[in-house]
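Worked Example 4.2. Consider the chain below.
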Amino acid sequence: MPIELIIPIALALLVIYTIFKGLCIVQQSQTVIVERLGKYYRTLSSGVNIIIPFIDRPRPMRWRYT
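Applying the procedure from the previous section yields the following structure tokens:
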């Protein structure tokens, strides 16, 4: 394969990977704490949420009723 074809394919795959990493799906029984660069940033509720990949780190927390 020529290099002119490999570079655009690699960039397209990188963009698709980044988009999927930016989506955070939170289940109804969960709450997700988002840390930005190691510090608390916000709390995500259930549903589809958008985060900044490689900067934000989601930490899931489960709520259990007894």
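The two ends are 59 Å apart (CA to CA). The chain has one helix and five strands. Compare this with Example 4.1 before moving on.
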